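re: the backbone from monday

yeah here it is again, tokenized this time
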């Protein structure tokens, strides 16, 4: 019996430790939470040589058969290429695709990568060590990005955990952010992976892996009774709007000719959106389908990813607004400064660094792909590559500006807190000064009363009570005058008093 693709990955993981997460996923050695998952969805998009496209949904069992029919059947000469679209890929599909097309395991490993691992505990992933010379040199690319999601009203949940994840086959970590003007906002670390293999001179096959935008968001699973359970679960609501693809928007004349659906429009999955965008791209592209390569097929996904980054940028700008402290507003937020605000500002600095790295990887891929085939590309594709580079450069510059603005908030907030502390100290000093004056009033009175209490002649009923008044009042006046002046001034006045007395004598 021939070895399976999972056995091949397990063997390679001994030499390449960063393949261990893929090996664990294929062998099923990691525990999964007891939560219903969205499931794996697969579709096939055929590109005919004449420019027509055909879209069909596939079951997981038919993927290998479709690939073998295309690669071995000579009657499909009219088909220039096929694109296998997979949403929320599951282990057995990875095993089938990898074995059928002899795919480098780093392609799948880069797609299921969860986060920037701690390098002191685990080997660095391929995405962490991405350099300009490496990006674009393979027949695949893993495009990581941040996907903002709406978690509902602030009062909808008692508390939302900071660590989140998607409920799917690929463990996509997420983070919940502090409430933004009454709304709960979160980020999901997502990835869009593209593989391209040339079959001869005029045929090719491509695989596109993407995450589900309909899977629920859950908290980090907690082990209870030997089972992984999530205590928080909510529906995923993406922020990004559907891109206005060429030919993908229903015109007003078509709307009038067709009866609109009575039950409303069903939410479109990311797989369906990518398929429709690719079909629209094939209609307007000046390239012949047999010449499609990795870069030409990645233009549509890159535009979708740029839309996600643009939404990320807008949310980041709103948090810059939310952290604009003032003397009036800081009074209400001073309790959250050390426990929440300062921690989240430092998180934004680390999050911005990782986001910039992902954008740079995307930019390096476009630059290397467009420059390596610049000689024989048509002007339209070169223009699209240059336009994408400008879009990404804009996103990078804006994220850097927002990151600098958020970092500048830390010393500003610290200065405001110090100013408030100094004001509080001044007010407290005024209160202490008032208490001191009250004590000074009663100090000479109580001293003289204690002194005269040694005899009954100075009591209130006695004949010599006037002596208490004559002694206590001048002493009280002398103490108040001495306490109201600085110590050096009081000593100088006292010295001049005795000097003048000696001269008179």
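seq for it, each position gets an aa:
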């Amino acid at each position: 019996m021939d070895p399976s693709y999972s056995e091949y990955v397990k063997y390679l993981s001994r030499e390449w430790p960063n393949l261990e997460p893929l090996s664990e996923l294929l062998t099923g050695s990691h525990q999964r939470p007891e939560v219903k998952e969205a499931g794996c969805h697969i579709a096939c998009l055929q590109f005919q040589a004449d420019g027509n496209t055909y879209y069909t949904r596939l079951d997981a069992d038919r993927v290998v058969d479709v690939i073998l029919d295309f690669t071995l059947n000579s009657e499909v000469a009219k088909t220039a290429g096929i694109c296998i679209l997979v949403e929320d890929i599951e282990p057995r599909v990875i095993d089938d695709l990898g074995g059928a097309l002899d795919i480098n395991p780093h392609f799948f490993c880069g797609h299921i990568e969860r986060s920037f691992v701690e390098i002191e505990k685990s080997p660095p992933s391929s995405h962490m060590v991405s350099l300009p010379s490496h990006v674009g040199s393979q027949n695949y690319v893993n495009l990581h990005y941040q996907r903002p999601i709406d978690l509902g009203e602030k009062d909808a949940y008692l508390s939302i955990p900071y660590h989140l994840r998607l409920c799917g086959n690929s463990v996509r970590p997420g983070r919940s952010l502090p409430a933004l003007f009454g709304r709960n906002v979160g980020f999901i670390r997502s990835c869009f992976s593209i593989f391209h293999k040339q079959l001869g001179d005029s045929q090719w096959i491509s695989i596109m892996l993407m995450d589900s935008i309909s899977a629920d968001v859950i908290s980090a699973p907690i082990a209870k009774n030997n089972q992984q359970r999530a205590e928080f679960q909510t529906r995923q609501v993406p922020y990004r709007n559907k891109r206005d693809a060429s030919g993908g928007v229903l015109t007003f004349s078509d709307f009038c000719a067709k009866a609109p659906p009575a039950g409303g429009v069903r939410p479109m999955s990311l797989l369906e959106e990518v398929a429709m965008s690719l079909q629209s791209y094939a209609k307007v592209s000046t390239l012949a389908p047999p010449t499609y390569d990795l870069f030409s097929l990645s233009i549509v996904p890159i535009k979708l990813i740029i839309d996600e980054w643009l939404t990320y940028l807008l949310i980041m700008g709103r948090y810059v607004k939310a952290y604009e402290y003032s003397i009036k507003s800081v009074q209400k937020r001073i309790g959250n400064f050390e426990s929440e605000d300062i921690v989240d500002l430092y998180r934004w600095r680390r999050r911005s660094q990782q986001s910039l790295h992902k954008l740079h990887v995307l930019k390096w891929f476009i630059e290397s792909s467009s420059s390596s085939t610049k000689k024989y590309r048509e002007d339209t594709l070169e223009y699209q590559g240059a336009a994408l580079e400008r879009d990404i450069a804009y996103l990078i510059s804006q994220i850097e500006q927002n990151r600098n603005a958020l970092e500048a908030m830390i010393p500003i907030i610290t200065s405001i807190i110090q100013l408030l502390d100094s004001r509080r100290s001044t007010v407290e000093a005024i209160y202490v000064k008032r208490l001191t004056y009250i004590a000074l009033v009663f100090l000479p009175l109580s001293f003289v009363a204690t002194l005269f209490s040694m005899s009954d002649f100075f009591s209130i009923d006695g004949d010599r009570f006037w002596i208490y008044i004559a002694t206590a009042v001048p002493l009280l006046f002398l103490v108040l005058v001495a306490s109201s002046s600085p110590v050096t001034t009081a000593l100088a006045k006292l010295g001049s008093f005795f000097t003048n007395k000696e001269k008179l004598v």
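The longest strand covers residues 183-199. The CA atoms of residues 201 and 219 lie 49 Å apart.
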